[in-house]
Every structure is written in C-alpha cells, then in structure tokens.
Amino acid sequence: MYRFVLPALALIVVATPAAADMRFLSYDPADRVTTTLTRGLTLQVERGWFGAITVHRLISTAARGSAAISQGGPNEALRALPEGAAETALYTVGDAGDARGLARALCPGAERTYLVMGQVRAVRPLTVQALGRWPDGQYRHCVTLNYEYRGEWAMPPAGAMSIDDDVTPTRPD
How confident is the model over 112-136, as pLDDT tens digits? Predict the structure, then answer.
C-alpha cells in the first residue's frame, strides 16, 4: 500500500506549484465612496491547486500605480470590522512605492493599513474592508469599498511572467 501512496503524494506536492494559475481580475466601483477613493481596481491573483485564490497585488485600472499586498496580518485587526461584515481574507498593505499612497488614502492617520476581502471570484461582486492601526495601538475600520466585476485581462503565454514581475499596466501615448 505504501508503495502507491508515497509516490502519489510526491506527485501531488510536485504538481501543486505547476497547477498555480496567475490571473488579473478587473472591478469597477459600485458606489460613490469607492469611486472617489479608488475608481477602478485590478487584482493580480493566483489560483492554487484546489481553487483557493490569493491576491498578490492591487493595480489601479484608472491611473498608473500598483500596491503589493501580503496575505495575513494580526487577528486583532479583524475585531475592528463593522457588525455584519462577512469578509475574512486579511491582507497587509506593503510600504513600498504606490502602496504608501493607497494606505494613506484609505486610512489617513493610520500607521499600518490592512484590507479584508470577501471571496474573490470571477463574475461576482467584491467587498473590501480597509482597517488601520493607529499610533495608540488601536485598530479601527476606515472604509468599505464595493466593486462590481468587470472582466478578466488576457494573459501572456505560459512561462512569460512570474509573480514577482512588475505588471503595472501602461497606457499608450
């Protein structure tokens, strides 16, 4: 029995990274607050072996700019979610480049900004909760952003990009 189980497990472990699929899902704002703060949004996501989606980067659809985000953050931040919020995927907004501007726009005055997203799926609306940690150590809710699904960007041929590539869209002159 072990002769078959161990090779099968080894195959799954090796095949899992190969099965990962990078995609770009685009969203339009669904309300006035979201339009004011972010206009349009594109998410660089990776879909894993069993369909789990991880967001790696937020890209402005309306202007040039992107922000790297990393999965995870302090559980205390989740306690600042408004009552009835169903979002559970916690991300930390990075400190480099355009991420600082995004963090300041969403949570002015916060030392650190976190995003809590609902389940990211094509053809479904998306709600993003912005939370911040203030200098006094308290976590507070900043804003709720609501988006309607717009579409998926076409991808270059397999192997032409990696997760670490700069994918900020450029506009033709």
Answer: 999 999 888 878 899 999 999 999 9
